[in-house]
Amino acid sequence: MKVDRLVSIIMTLLDKKRIGAQELADMFEVSPRTIYRDIDAINMAGVPIRSISGVGGGFEIMPEYKIDKNVFSTADLSAILMGLSNLSNMVRGDELVNALAKVKSFIPADKANDIEIKINQICVDLSPWSGNKNIQPYLQMIKAALEDYKLLSFEYIAHHGNRSVRTVEPYQLVLKSGHWYFYGYCYNRSDYRLFRLSRMSDLQIKQETFISRDYQKPILDFEEIIETMQTEIKIRIHKSVLDRVLEFCTYDHFFPDDDEHYIVNFPFIENEYYYDVLLSFGDKCECLEPLYIRAKMKQKIYDIAAIYSN
């Protein structure tokens, strides 16, 4: 990821007096053009890096702004290593390995054990238990396209199974609710779109590059909108699906009905997704009210039964 490469570049410049753009590009397996953009980003972040031309030239942090390695506390190093280590479980690459190695070089020997303990206190494993095996390689391909401003093409399955072939300028990888997406400008729709990786197939990096646009990041927080759309319905569930229902509401929505069942005030939006959620609980869930949703559930169950009766 870009932020990890920026951290690694800073660490490299702290260790070396001066280093050339091509050497940095080779080290991180990106183009010199990408390195120049990274240097601009680091300068904008407040770390002054100057460029020296000629033989023996390159980039260096201005001497009066050199950072002492002791500026990083145990908590700082633990936080950086925790983030890089957990990210590397899913988004692999030499730049992450390099960043980890350089950050670890800042660890004083007398603090190594304390930092190791803190790192291991939190584990974030982004890889799925099972499922679509394309996610990992697609992450690497999108990451490479982001680095070099390359167009992506792929087949996409949208709502209701509609298939289309898309050509997209990639701008951002997004992890939301355990699912990976990427955000980009879609040539087919002439607008920005958020694409879920699990719905993509035949992903290819095209040779064509693009000039980065000024874009607004995607809106990912729909909590206020969802709250206005949600209503509470009353369902009766068996205790065996209690853990699954807790994924959608807190325990204060549950009221014991007998030793085996609960009445739940369940947050519900009237669309196919939420009907499918109720159906996924099988015979361990009954919609009590409102009656029109109960009637729709009954019809859906009849429709399913009709498929198996033929």
Description:
There is one protein chain. The protein is of the alpha+beta class and 310 residues long. The chain has 3 domains: 2-118, Winged helix-like DNA-binding domain superfamily/Winged helix DNA-binding domain (Arc Repressor Mutant, subunit A, Orthogonal Bundle); 135-209, SH3 type barrels; 224-309, no CATH class. The protein contains 11 helices and 11 strands. It has helices at residues 2-15, 21-28, 32-44, 74-88, 94-104, 112-119, 135-148, 223-229, 242-245, 272-280, 291-309, and strands at residues 49-52, 58-61, 150-157, 163-176, 179-186, 191-196, 200-209, 231-238, 254-256, 261-268, 285-289. The protein has a 5-stranded antiparallel sheet, covered by helices on one side. A 4-stranded antiparallel sheet has the order 9-10-8-11. A hairpin with a 5-residue loop joins strand 3 and strand 4 (163-176). Helix 1 crosses helix 3 (32-44). The longest helix has 19 residues, at 291-309. The relative contact order is 0.07.
